[in-house]
What does this fold into?
Amino acid sequence: MTSPTLGRANDLGLSLQQQRQRAAFWFLAPMVVALFCVAAWPLLRTIWFSLTDTSMDNLYGGKFIGFDNYLRVQTLSNGTVRYRGTLVDPAWWNAVWNTIRFSVVSVTLETIIGLGIALVLNAEFKGRGLVRAAILIPWAIPTIVSAKMWAWMLNDQYGILNDIMMNLGLIDTKIAWTASNDTAMIAVLIVDVWKTAPFMALLCLAGLQMVPRDIYEAARIDGVHPVKVFWKITLPLIRPALMVAVIFRMLDALRIFDLVYVLTPNSAATKTMSVISRENLFEFNNFAYGSAQSTLLFAILAIFVSLYIWLGKVNLSGEGR
Amino acid sequence: MSFGYRGRAMRTAAVAAMLAVVSAPVMADEIFYVSGAVGNAVENFKTLVKPWEEATGHTVTMVPMPASTTDQFAQYRLWLAAGSADIDVYQTDVIWAPQLADSFVDLSEVAKDLAPTHFPSIIESQTVGGKLVALPIFTDAPALYYRTDLLEKYGVAVPKTWAELTTAAQTIQDGEKATNPDFWGFVWQGNSYEGLTCNALEWVKSHGGGQIVESDGTVSINNPNTIAALEQAKAWVGTISPGGVLAYQEEEARGVWQTGNAAFMRNWPYAYGLGNGDDSAVKGLFTVTTLPVGKEGDPSAATLGGWNVAVSKYSTKQEAAISLAMYLAGPEAQKQRAIAESNLPTIVSLYDDADIAAAQPIIPQWKDVFLNAVPRPSAPTLGKYAEVSSKFFNAVHATLSGNGSAADNLAALEADLNDLKGDAW
It folds into this structure.
């Protein structure tokens, strides 16, 4: 099979390098086509929808209206000028702020807790394999199931969390975790940290196991304090792995939808960018407006990731250090 | 159970096969019926459609959805926009007809004999531009549930106004808390979803504050009566109602009530039958009355609810689907629903039915309650209703949870609704 092909390629006067490039192209082509279909095409279509006046009743009949869904100026009959569109919509900026607050707090907590767990699991002890598997359980439970489960545990009347805290005397009245605006975000954070800290632990553990043991031995012989060992040896060496783990989590956190939607639907205190764009897309029949919000969500994610990679000098190529 | 089910399926299949041989070829279709599920709706539905399945040879599979109507609506809109043929028959809320009219089959021709037996106002609510979008299967109007034993114990009269309710609930709660720390005076639906629109509309309307958007399209929500109504409701949270009521939907409120932990509850008729079930702690200890009013002499306001069946125009089995819709909206199914689930019929003559009166004595009394029911402003706001309702329940929820005063939130809501309205709805 191969020799005639090679023969023909040679006839065309291609060098080995060119042949390899050509082969690589054909091997990559299916992947590129698949990615275009499942990622690029929906994205381009969403951007297109955001520039039209499409509604759910008529998905293919939208007219091009430029950037009106983002920002438009209206002059009312009485002469007042007002601005409309997503970019001046307080509900949208509330959602952006909620999302950022959620992402920063949850990823910070998850990184600290995850790293702590990873340090413990990295030590040699009996039954380590079992504990490593057990710690992953929260992450393996589907989000909807864990959100529902926590919704019951956080329930103000029958919830076990209130019951335990009452019995311990930590609180004197039952807290309505998901109902009150002050605690709704805390409730979402508790569930998210519980669910994703194990994932961070796993990624940190992978990083920790790359650290050569002899460095620790040398430090111990020199009598370096363990805390100093952590800051001067462990942390710098696992930093690349940690940065990649944080970027994964951050991307995930910035587009959080399912947990918020199940635990605290419609609460303005927790509504995130994904939740609000879904609401406009499907519930309010503002398909184009929701598409504009989805597009902005994509833009914010893209800007964030570029900044992070640039500022953190994260090496995603996996080559060298 | 599974044997019984299989046996029934086999029998149905056999009947269908026989029919196929003797009469004109009949195709046994499997119809998918989607509906929100509260209480034991799923089990009841199987019993309800059995006679239809046996008569026609078709089968029905119920696809249960979350109880929140807001969530159901978004999902249905998604399916219908995608032209999905997976669902043949939709159970639709009374407020959805104008928003989903384009995706459903016109039933006015097939139901020309059945429709006039229903309450004309309900048929009218499901008619959009001369097209009968959905057939009513039951109507809903909430009531005030109260514990007869506790009212007697504390010598409290049945409250007529919201102020009386507040005092009565406080008295009973103060007494009961001594022995039962989980006891509350009044539970209702305060989560930010469509149900809060219903609850709040009742407070507002019974205080003379209008109905959010009037039938001529004017936004009427910002007025002193509405402010008073919302301030009063806000005072309940944390005093006679648990703080968590702001996350309650129907089922959470019923949970507190049915375990015997509340003196009063605002809920729909379905809770009546379930509250008298054998596993209920309040069986035989409660009854219902009309919702309180702002001041003595005002008419009580109960939000008109109710469910309908609509046939998707994307269904590939429309004949069978229409037949099912006709059956569910017909007298036989409505009567069974009334007896088994205390759902209010929409067929006028069933209110004089002796069997229903014997099984669910509250139903005949309900006729007057719901004849005075307030519709939500879905007719004047047309396709924008979902957004109007969402803005309203968010403003109410913010007020109740202490996030801004009623006056400020309502002023902002009025501006938002007028923006949304533009030149016309």
Q: What stands out?
A: DSSP finds 18 helices and eleven strands in chain B. The longest strand of chain B covers residues 30-36. Chain B touches chain A through 39 residues (CB under 8 Å).
